[in-house]
Design brief:
Layout (H helix, E strand, L loop, with lengths): L26 E4 L3 E7 L24 E7 L23
Antiparallel strand pairs: 1-2, 2-3
């Protein structure tokens, strides 16, 4: 991993749909000029009573997907951390 310095910042994207908590199944498509992030959106079931779980996979149908496009990205990294290990990320405090 690269060394974090004072120039690194975190920008929260508040106008994007929230990813699914359990299985967002993110996909990144990138070239020299743009980056597209696709992920499953969180759609809480208002009638969920906690007695069952829904299995989600890439073959699941009828799920809401968000597409977020970044124009002229400088760099990107794809991978960890997940929500359990996020506190260990060098930018977690920012």
């Amino acid at each position: 991993m690269y060394q974090v310095d004072g120039l690194d910042t975190v920008v929260e994207l508040t106008d994007c749909p929230r990813p699914d908590i359990g299985a967002p199944l993110p996909v990144v498509l990138a070239d020299d000029y743009s980056l597209v992030l696709a992920y499953l959106v969180s759609e809480p079931d208002p009638n969920w009573d906690g007695s069952y779980a829904t299995l989600v996979s890439p073959e699941s149908e009828g799920l809401l997907v968000a597409l977020v496009r970044f124009q002229r990205p400088y760099a990107h990294m794809f991978g960890p951390p997940n929500d359990e290990a996020f506190h260990g990320h060098p930018l977690a405090q920012r």
